Amino acid sequence: MDVETFRRLLTEPGQALLAEIAQRAGVESDHALGSRLRTVHDGDFVAAAVTQNHLRGLARTKFGDDAARMYFTHDALEQATRASVATHRAQTLRSLGADAVVDLGCGIGSDLIAFARAGIAVRGVDIDPVRVEIARANLAALALPGTVEVGDATTATVAENEVAFFDPARRSARGRVFRLDGLTPPWDLVAQRLAGRAVAKVMPGIGHDDIGDGVRAEWVSERGKLVECCLWGAGFAHPDAGTRVATVLPSGATMSGGGRPEPDGADTGEAGPVGRYLFEPDDAVIRAGLVADLAEQIDGWLPDRHIAYITTDEPADTPFARGYLVLDELPYRTKQLRAALQDLDVGTLTVKKRGVQVVPEDLIAKLRLTGSGSALIVLTRVAGAGRAFLVEPLARP
pTM of this prediction? Predict the structure, then answer.
C-alpha cells in the first residue's frame, strides 16, 4: 500500500467502503466480497480496505476496541506495542516528570497513543512515509494531539525538554532479528542516548552485560507471557535506577533487585529438597535474574541452584510465580513412572519440565497411559539429579 492509496481510505468514500466491508465481512467470504466490490471500485482501493478490515480484527488482541478505528500494516502491527504494555510505560514515564517525548521510529503510533493519553506531548518520527501517515491517522481517529513527521532516527533532533523513545525495528529482509547489532536504528545510537533521558524497548533476550551502567532494565510480562524489556536511561531520577526489574501485567506488580543471572537464565541461590509447595517464577522474574530474590521474598529456596523453580513449606501468595501443591514424588525413570501413573489410573497427562532433557510429547507417547483420570507432573533436577513430582495447581492470587 502506498501513501496515496492509504489517504483514499481516509476520504468519505474510503470510510464508507471500510464500513461496508466491516458490516459484510461475517456474511460474505473475503473473496466474494472483494470480487463484488471490484465491480464498483478499483482493485488496489478494495484490496487496501479489505486488508485494513482483516488487520483490525487481528489487532483487537493488542488494542481492544480501539482497533476498529485504527489503521495498520502487517509488519507494523506485529512490532507495535500492545496497549496494556504501552500504557504501563507511559504512566511510568509520566511519573518521572516527563512532559514531552519524541518517538524515534514511531511506526503506526501505538506508543504515541499511550504517551498522549498519559498527558505527555508527543512527536513521532519515522523513515517510512506510509507509517507516518498511519500514525497521524491513528492519533486523529482517537482524538489525540501530536505531530508525526518523516525523518531518520539517526539524525533527528531531540529538544531539551523531550525524552527520546526508541523501539528499534527487529525485522530485516531476512526475517526477525535477535541480535543487537541488527537493530534499526543502530544499537550504538540507542545505547548512547540511554546515558541520558531516553527509553528503549528491546527484545527480552537482551544480555545483562549489554545494558549500560545506571540503566534500569525492566522485563515485562502480560498474563504470564514475556513480551519485552524496557530500558530506562541513566538520566532519570528513578528510585530503581540501575537495577533489574520484573513487572507482571495486568496487575502491574513490580519487583526489583541487583539481578544475578546464570548463563541458562536462572540465578544463584541456596538449594535444598523440595518442600510441600513448588513455584514456577514468571518469565519476567527469570530474565531479570530475580529468582533468588523472589525465593527470599516468599521464604523459599531453590531445589537446584541453576534451575528456576522455588519451593516452600508454606503456601505463598505472589503475583510473580505460578504455584503448585506437591502431592507426591514419583519415579523418574520412564518404566517405573508408567507403573506409578497406571496405579493412579491416569490417562491424560500434562508434563512440565525445566532443566532436564525431556520432550514432554515424546514422554507421554512412551508412557502409553490408558486410565480414566488426569494428572500434572513436574520433571526437574534437585541437587543435580532428575526428579519427578505429582502436583496440582494452586488458585491464582
Answer: 0.89
The CATH code of the domain that includes 120 is 3.40.50.150
What CA–CA distance (Å, rounded) separates 219 from 281? 13
Q: Residue 71: exposed, middle, or buried by beta-carbon count in 10 A (0-12, 13-18, 19+)?
A: buried
CA distance 241 to 50: 46
250 cis-preceded (ω within 30 degrees of 0): yes
Q: Which of 191, 226, 257 is the last residue of a domain?
A: 257
Contact 14, 43 (CB under 8 A): no
- Say if 74 falls within a structural domain: no
The letter for the amino acid at 160 is E
Average pLDDT over residues 48-74: 95
More confident residue, 184 or 116: 116
C-alpha grid cell for residue 295? 525465593
Looking at the fold, whether 173 and 43 belong to one and the same domain comes out as no
* DSSP string over 346-375: EEEEEEEESSS---HHHHHHHH----SEEE
Segments forming the whole domain that contains residue 230: 79-257
**Which strand (E) or helix (H) includes residue 115?**
helix 110-117
Residues 6+ apart with CB under 8 A from 190: 166, 168, 183, 198, 200, 202
What's the start-to-end Cα distance of the chain, in Å? Answer: 46
Residue 176 phi/psi, 5° resolution? -65, 140
Within a domain: 108: yes
Q: For residue 389, what pLDDT band results from cuts at 50, 70 and 90?
A: very high
Q: Which helix (H) or strand (E) holds 248?
A: strand 244-249
